[in-house]
Design a protein that fits this description.
The complex is a heterodimer. By secondary structure, chain A is of the alpha+beta class. Chain A contains ten helices and 20 strands. Chain B has a six-stranded mixed beta sheet, with helices on both faces. In chain B, strands 13-12-11-14-20 form a five-stranded antiparallel beta sheet. The longest helix of chain B is centred in the middle third of the chain and has 17 residues. The chains are: A alpha+beta, B alpha+beta. Chains A and B meet through α6, α7, α8 and β16 of A and α4, α5, α6, α7 and β16 of B.
Chain lengths: 368, 368
């Protein structure tokens, strides 16, 4: 049963450090996504785990056994590629049955394993098709069936949905989650798509510049991110800079003064002491708009109005010179217009608060 | 005034018709998106307008002038391809000013245009960098600056965000539209991403198999799709096939193939006809307790939950055996766990009715 441990993994290519001092344990049956912007080292990390590259420093363990130095084909893992990589001259059936044939499993096992896995991805009826006769989504389903046929309990998914159309991706997420869980596999999935990561994972490992930023469940990363980069990368957030000017008696409430003298009340266990420079992060669905000023509101002007299906998104330049995004369900939207003077209403318990970074807010949030 | 007028445009590659009798009017200053699955003919259409490939029949007019016989460089269009195609040995400045220099502008003018364009895309400070030294987002902006310095008033964008990280795409959408509007350009933007199309467009054309299947504002496309395909492609919908039993006032009743009655929006279709009715997953209500109305209520069990931050998507197996999806906002989603018994309600006014497509519903919904 595959449990994975990575200890102090560092990988350097010449002067460039792709991964630095990574410690990570993945439990048996867990679905873990390694998420981050291009160049953060996420692909390097799974290539080290799968034995495609050797680490400069540190070791990988699969089921407690050190695998450093063991070649890929002896590590017993299924691999799903971004570019799908089916053999173009082979049919779906031939592609899928590749692993059991290579491993000399015998005609009976080859037959039953291939049938079972093609059925799981709903492709049995197309077993005689060549890859070019299939849609992109179907091709990747064949790629998944092929990986499942290896019989390995450890599955590595390297950007499996990136090459597909946006709408096709949404449907395949359900399939992947269903398959991995029903077979009780341990899965490691690499992606730059935060929505994909949230939808499919038990836990997310968020990386940036070769290091792990935060490891947590999707719900915790979204609702209570421990740092500003996470707040911006997982879902979207608006940010307001200011300084704490007042603490109340209980210690979990404080008042922040933003630019141009506007004040906001914050209710959060991580409230900071009077005098601290802070940044507040807030999700678009946790803000409201009103024509009248209300308690805990800041005036602003609507710059943009974007229809998003069941809700409307407003981009508002507030009197604090901060741009905030507000999402209002279509059913309750009172239809504000571009140029309207409005008040943005903050719910004090929905505000996330962080120390103001020394290197500057934009630097910390940067996606590139 | 950069208007585009396309009449009866057709492009065939041998027997394969890529673009089939398209007639389109694009208004001055409009931001138009061409949305469709892979293979719909989107890129071909853009290449025809740019003059990079020749149509089989039909005509293209720019500012009232027929450009059918004009080479690409005389059509006053800027074309930004998916792959950016920057010259790898030239730096940001040389790539940006390549067009003006090639056209023999005097050095002073080249200097002004180059600087103006690079400042607009926030790259002036990196003007000495080579493409490989830039991040994906910066390369994209460099390519945009180069396209814009061609002094064109029409911007043709072929999947301009496809090669970028998912999170970065969200930010660049706003920048792209703003830039195009600020410069008073007319833009045609090709994408397979329905969310991108909804958020960025003044108007969307949905293309499938070389034909326009709907043209409308994002709101119209989302709320009043012309058929089941768009209903499911832009957003996501649950469908039932059946026979239209009766229409009364603003409601209709359909007897589904599962034997249950479905109350829907009124329709002009004749009672007795085979129809398909569908509701967006965003408007599919899911509750623990039964609704106090006695129509369109169903029971089922949650099979899977995909957490998406602002939303969660639920896969529910109805007691009829049908699998449906429901999308709930975060604050409602937290109440449910996989395995829970739930009630599903379809609001009649959100149930859209279409004639049953030729070849059946499954074929209609295929995203090839």
């Amino acid at each position: 049963m595959p449990e994975i441990t990575m200890k102090n993994i560092t990988k350097r290519f010449g002067k460039v450090t792709a991964c630095e001092d990574i410690d990570l344990t993945i439990k048996e049956g867990e679905y873990v996504t390694v998420l981050g912007p291009s160049g953060c080292g996420k692909t390097t990390l799974v290539k080290i785990l799968s034995g495609i590259w050797e680490p400069t420093d540190g070791d990988c363990f699969i089921d407690g056994k050190k695998v450093t130095g063991i070649p890929t084909f002896e590590r017993d893992l299924g691999y799903i590629f971004q570019n799908i990589a089916l053999f173009p001259h082979m049919t779906v059936w031939q592609n899928t049955s590749y692993a059991p044939i290579v491993k000399d499993r015998g005609q009976e096992v080859i037959e039953s394993t291939t049938t079972e896995n093609l059925e799981l991805v709903n492709l049995l009826q197309r077993k005689g098709f060549k890859p070019f006769e299939l849609s992109g989504g179907e091709q990747q389903k064949a790629g998944i069936a092929r990986a499942l046929c290896s019989g390995s309990k450890l599955l590595i998914l390297d950007e499996p949905l990136s090459a597909l159309d946006a709408r096709v991706r949404l449907d395949l997420r359900y399939d992947i989650k269903r398959l991995v869980k029903s077979k009780g596999l341990t899965a490691i999935h690499v992606t730059h798509d935060q929505e994909e990561a949230m939808s499919i994972s038990d836990r997310i490992v968020l990386m940036r510049a070769g290091r792990i930023v935060e490891v947590n469940t999707p719900e915790n990363l979204y609702n209570n991110p421990k740092n500003l980069f996470t707040a911006n990368f997982i879902g979207e957030a608006s940010f307001i800079e200011g300084r704490i000017v007042e603490n109340d008696d209980e210690g979990n409430c404080c008042t922040m003064k933003a630019r141009n003298g506007h004040k906001l009340k914050i209710k959060n266990d991580r409230c900071m002491m009077k005098g601290a420079g802070v940044v507040i992060a807030v999700r678009p669905e946790n803000l409201f708009i009103s024509r009248e000023a209300e308690k805990n509101s800041i005036p602003g002007v609507i710059e943009e109005k974007i229809f998003m299906g069941s809700f409307m998104r407003y981009r508002i330049m507030m009197a604090t010179d901060d741009l905030v995004q507000v999402e209002i369900a279509e059913a309750v939207d009172k239809t504000f217009n571009i140029g309207d003077n409005v008040n943005v209403i903050f719910r004090s318990e929905k505000l996330l608060v962080y120390p103001r970074p020394k290197e500057g807010l934009q630097e910390v949030l940067s996606l590139e | 005034m950069p208007e585009i007028r396309i009449t009866n445009l057709k492009k065939a590659f041998g027997d394969l018709v890529a673009i089939d009798d398209l007639t389109i009017d694009v208004k001055d200053g409009e931001y138009l998106t061409i949305l469709g699955p892979t293979g719909a003919g989107k890129t071909t259409l853009l290449r025809l307008i740019a003059g990079l490939t020749e149509q089989t029949s039909g005509s293209i007019f720019i500012d009232g002038e027929c450009v059918d016989d004009l080479p690409p460089e005389r059509r006053k269009v800027a074309f930004l391809s998916q792959s950016y195609s920057l010259f790898p040995h030239m730096d940001v400045w040389e790539n940006t000013t390549f067009g003006p220099i090639a056209r023999g502008w005097d050095p002073e003018q080249v200097e002004i245009v180059g600087r103006e364009m690079l400042e607009m895309v926030h790259l002036y400070e990196r003007k000495d960098a080579l493409p490989r030294e830039l991040s994906g987002g910066m390369q994209q902006r460099n390519a945009l600056a180069r396209a814009l310095s061609a002094d064109a008033k029409i911007l043709l964008l072929d999947e301009p965000l496809r090669a970028l990280d998912a999170r970065l795409r969200l930010d660049l959408r706003h920048e792209l539209k703003k830039l195009s509007k600020d410069m008073g350009m007319t833009a045609i933007h090709v994408t397979h991403d329905q969310e991108e199309a909804l958020t960025i467009s003044d108007r969307i054309l949905v293309l499938r198999d070389g034909r326009i299947i709907q043209s409308g504002t994002p709101k119209e496309i989302f709320n009043e799709p012309s058929g089941p395909f768009i209903h499911h492609f832009v957003g996501e919908a649950n469908f039932v096939s059946g026979v239209l039993k009766a229409v009364e006032g603003d409601r209709a009743v359909i007897t589904g193939d599962d034997g249950q009655d479905y109350h829907t929006q009124a329709t002009g279709i004749k009672p007795g006809s085979r129809v398909v009715t569908g509701i967006k997953t965003e408007f599919t209500l899911m509750t623990k307790d039964r609704w106090g109305v006695d129509i369109n209520n169903f029971t089922g069990q949650i099979e899977r939950i995909l957490f998406l931050g602002r939303f969660s998507d639920f896969e529910v197996k109805l007691d009829s055996g049908q699998m449906i999806h429901a999308r709930l906002p975060g604050y409602q989603a937290t109440k449910f766990r996989a395995g829970d018994r739930v009630n599903i309600h379809y609001s009649p006014e959100r149930m859209l009715v279409f004639p049953e497509p030729d070849g059946g519903l499954k074929k209609e919904l295929e995203m090839v």
